[in-house]
Amino acid sequence: MTNKHSLKKLLAGPYLVWAVAFIIIPLIMIMYYGLTTEKGHFTFANIATITTPDNLKALGLALLLSIISTLICLILAYPLGMILSNSNINSSSFMIILFILPMWMNFLLRTIAWQSLLEKNGVINSVLSLLHLPRFEMINTPGAIIVGMVYNFLPFMILPLYNVLSKIDKDVINAARDLGANGFQTFHRIILPLSVPGIISGITMVFVPSLTTFVISDILGGSKILLIGNVIDQEFVQSSNWHVGSGLSLILMIFILISMAMIAKYDKEGEGSAF
Amino acid sequence: MAKKLIDLVNISKSYGENLVLDDLNLYVKENEFITLLGPSGCGKTTLLRIIGGFESPNTGSVIFDGKDITNLAPNKRQLNTVFQNYGLFNHMSIAENIAFPLKIKKKSKSYIEDKVKYALKLVNLDGFETRTVDSLSGGQKQRIAIARGIVSEPKVLLLDEPLGALDLKLRQDMQYELIRLKNELGITFIYVTHDQEEALTMSDKIVVMNQGYIQQIGTPEDIYNEPQNAFVADFIGDSNIFPAVMVHDKLVKILGAEFECVDVGFGVNKPVDAVIRPEDIDLVPVGTGILDGVVTHIIFKGVHYEMEVTANGYKWLVHSTDMFPVGSEVGIYVKPFEIQIMKKPESEDEEAIVIDE
Amino acid sequence: MKKFISKIYLALIIILLYAPILTLVVLSFNSSKTRAKWGGITGKWYVSLFHDDGIMNALYTTLVIALLSAVIATVIGTAAAIGISAYRQRTKSIFMGVTNIPMLNADIVTGISLMLLFIAFKFTLGFKTILLAHITFNIPYVILSVAPKLKQTNKSTYEAALDLGASPIYAFFKVVFPDILPGVISGFFLAITMSLDDFIITHFTKGPGVDTLSTKIYSEVRKGIKPEMYALSTIMFLTVFILLILINTNPKENKKTEHIINSKARKVSKLIMHRLIPATMVVVIIIGGFVYSKTNKTVDSKKQLIVYNWGEYIDPKVLTMFEKETGINVVYEEFETNEIMYPKISSGAISYDVVCPSDYMIQRMIKNNLLSKIDFDKVPNIKHIGSQYMKQSRQFDPTNEYSVPYCWGTVGILYNKKMVKEKVDSWNILWNKKYKDNILMQDSVRDSFAVALKSLGYSLNSADLDELNAAKNKLIKQKPLVQAYVIDQVRDKMIGNEAALGVIYSGEAIYTQKENPNLEYVIPKEGSNVWIDSWVIPKNAKHKENAEKFINFLCRPDIALLNFEYITYSTPNVDAAKLIKDPDIRNSKTAFPDPKDLDRCETFKYLGTKYDRIYNELWREVKSK
Fold first, then answer.
1. Are residues C119 and C214 both part of a single domain?
2. ipTM
3. What is the CATH class of B239-356?
4. Which residues of chain A make contact with C217, given a CB cutoff of 8 A?
5. A51-227+251-266 falls under which CATH superfamily?
6. Model confidence band, residue B189 (pLDDT cutoffs 50, 70, 90)
7. Which of B322-346 are b and which e, b meaning 16 or more Cβ less than 10 Å from the residue's Cβ?
8. How far is A10 from chain C (nearest CA, A)?
9. pTM of the model
């Protein structure tokens, strides 16, 4: 028995090596850069750059926009997950594919397409003016960035929610109804608590990429709106200040650690994993 | 005489082209333990779900206490269900599970506490309040599901094969528990099972179903001793079913041998089915019975021996506490009132039922 | 009723998801080259797509990386999932924690951390590093798809197989593997999808000459996406769409009919639809990629030249001609700004052979000892470059030893005559509240500060903190009026009448005027920036001689003319300028401004690291207000 198991364990070997080489060591590199000066002395100065008003503002704005986007995704995706989990298996798996399919159109192109849609003389405004409705100005505003975030990350909310919701035993819901709970009570006392792992996983999967994006804010924000991702990108790519860039990345890691802790707490069994 | 609590009138239900219930009529009296018995796919669970409100019938109506509740939502019905796989809420403690229907009804905290305690005591699980659902064994989950079902004092408790997942010993214990509960609480139980022994043990009334039709309704004794057709006879307990000819009243010819019986009114020289329970066959010395045969097979079953006796070209199943070794010649005797005569099925449909089983 | 509402809701979400996709599909049939204008229906981009080496190369790189990384990740990930399942709970959670890191970690952090790793361990950034990075972020998806299936499998089936005499390997492949296969397959497809869709991680781990579609598109975002890109995406999207429909429209493969014996014909058609067609498509793609990379890559390294140039800054024909004439294989890479280019050269991560930075950046590179002297004996065609430009170059290359002028121009205001009725002759119009939300500024530190400094009457090379602060405050004051900070998008936006006024490079202005006759270019009276982009050879170039051949080639008048006509930026090649056929352009004030206008203009100078940082910080302040 032990022998058989150790044989099986060996199979994880290649991954172990890979994970150390390409996940652990790179993170250590970031920590190294984040905590040293160009001359290699230890410092907290790089991390402390987050306290400058500009950077704090970029972080605050990123937090705000990503929280709003995450909430919108949750509100949009939850009913969808319920609808999908109630439909029969064949059609729902087809629907799931419909939600993943847009990912095969390049991420950047999709985002640029939103630019075409939202622009002053863009598609939506053209349609509105054809209908003699008031135009709306959204491009290059935080609103447009939120649209981009919601659009790009919505599937990451739909999938885990669908997964947990479809795993809920229909008899459990029937039991609640049977014991006197009306539709709302059943949702609030049974379905909602049981779908927490999926909610947490979905929130993380939307929140983290929204928080750290620089592409969406670049394309849909007209480079007028600086998020923390843009600051880090600029530190690396334009100012080529890797130490400050790494220091700021370490700040982002804090949010990622929080997410991991949340998942560990609420989704022990990995039920909420998206795939 | 207790009044009718539930009356099912002309219920039909089909899924697509698949007819599950066909024009079914049934009533349940107050404080009755009624069992819907039948093989899987016979429509018994569908019927239960229609009563519970999880399905609506295509035609017909469900009358509860004189009111039509056919289209009433499950949460508005005064009946609770114990589901096959329990339907317990994993994210709640045992106490919260049981308190659920009371909380929905906005009962006071102290009332709920008392009730939960009482319900747990009823199912012999005192002190389980803070346990999690995951930490329970199958039998314990079952009891919690029942406790949750009865705590809000419904008029009827529906049980959908609740003992199916339990092992034999536990199942027997639970059977007695259920009977005790029913008597203590005075609630009407509608019980669904495919296990005939369970049905015979617990029920006041058994409804035998097959392919969407009710085959027979009666007390356990009626059903066992006087099955109305071959399906019921075959489904309830072991039986020998022979093609026979009713010579005239009180005389039937089975495999060429004439047996006295007590049945009348089947006509003269009409083909019938004769049912004889294995324990009703007496093995007697050769020549002293109605016909003779040879023991071809024997198994010791604990309480009795199960033997196969070949006589007149047929294998007779016999249960007896006396042992006759293989190869011994025996005489077969059946008391007249132990023979049950049934009409031959008239339609092919009914025939098909027999073959299926 | 409830069903109806949920159907409507589903439809709305689907519309939301597919509106942009539909937009892209429509754009792929737009005969106008810019996104901003509808020019009628055409299918020409679908044809020219297959002649665009850059895009086709990027496509195959993308597909090969996606497939390879998915295959490798599937093998490693599946093995890992099985291995992990044998561990105790605690070890298991540690493993899963590590697995979660690339999934949850910000792409930007993952990308950067891998880049730091590759540079620290002296991996040359390129195809291999992208592949390694993609495998890294793909493995978790595979593990997370396989692990749940593994949990569901009945342990006793495996043990039963062993019991019946199967070897562990045989038992695994015959009993366990079929059970987890759906997980393995979905992991594989997820990996492909994620690899195809990734931009950020690729962005940080890629090297010269290697582009995936994502990075190619990103470099095009700023100067306007090539319509071929829309066409390609449409093809890819539809291919996958059809593939998935073929695989999934399995009309009645549910449990009810499972035991009904399928007729043979249906089985065969099923096999063709669900296995054969998808498999054939995949094989074609793989073989195509293989053949394509074969014909393109196998060049011995001596016959190679790595060029690092601005986006859209050379006629692709010129590169082909050069390759044909010299037999040198050109690896061509583009950058968007000097600031993005500089760290790539200074870090030494990639050794480019010939680069085309702007004046002040050349000065910085000379100062930081990053450039090598050009052997002008090997560049005889230097004689065609006008002496006035060589003289001007001395501002940043005092000895004329390091650089050869390629393009030059001015920065000015492009305005739409329909929207701006007043006379435009001063930078201050960019502060006029009338034009709120109708002003486009440059998204670059020096260009934006140049505008502010000049409007205040200061030098655009100012190193005076008071002046700089004044300029910063002026830019902050302007920010609410600005529609967007862009680089080359000014072009598309001005053509599409999205804005009234934009700060633009003269070369871009010529192009926009061709597309939209309402546009006019001026050099404001306060003066502006006159700039020169010149070819230089970095110190760590591996093919210096090839680089000199290349520079010499570009200085040939006929070649310089080709480039001028393609990029429309003024050429310092006086002999080429004489060859311009169209008199309107030959005499265009935009392309070749009056000398008196140029007198008011300055060239950017490198101000040193300290001032670089100050400029950057002040700019950040402007951007984050």
1. yes
2. 0.85
3. mainly beta
4. 106, 108-109, 112
5. MetI-like (1.10.3720.10)
6. very high
7. eebeeeeebbbebeeebbbbbbebe
8. 6
9. 0.80
